[in-house]
Amino acid sequence: MNQTLIPPVRRAFAALAISCALVAGLAPAASATAAPAPAPASAEAGKKKVKLDASLSKKQAKVNEKVTLKGTLQAQEGGDAADSLEAIIVQQLQGSVWVNIADTTCRPNSTFSLKLSFSFSAVVTLRAYHPETTLYASAYTSSNLTLRVG
Question: How far apart are CA 137 and CA 43, in angstroms?
Fold first, then answer.
């Protein structure tokens, strides 16, 4: 049986060359996924503040029964109702993480309404969330909404 063994120095050099190639190939991808630079303070100061209020039509519902979540998005600094539609996201607390479960749109200084239903028995904690946009700062309801499903 004829076997040729690669000398240890050559093996180490090959491993080093492969490692360098991998690092060089991954470096551009890592920099592309890095967090963007923070926005300058002047851009942040130009955003209008909003207040988000919401309530549920019921505090208790049966499984698969529709419950209405109604709310308002109020611009705190003289927002105009002619502004673009703003996203409103309904989030559910799952463990210690807020998970998006539904969404709609709303004009500033206007109301929104969404119908929700759950196919399981549980006590569900919800909130409405408005993500930051180019015109408005982010906001969420000041108190969580609790719904008993079962």
Answer: 11
Separation CA 125–CA 147 (nearest Å) = 7
According to DSSP, the β-strands at 97-106 and 60-61 are unpaired
The reported pTM is: 0.67
- What is the C-alpha separation between 109 and 82, in angstroms, rounded? 10
- CB 70: neighbour CB atoms within 10 A? 14
Q: Each residue's pLDDT tens digit in the chain (150 positions)?
A: 555 555 666 666 566 556 555 444 544 444 344 444 444 444 456 788 999 999 999 999 999 999 999 999 998 876 555 567 899 999 999 999 999 999 999 999 999 999 999 999 999 999 999 999 888 899 999 999 999 999
Amino acid code (one letter) for 93: L
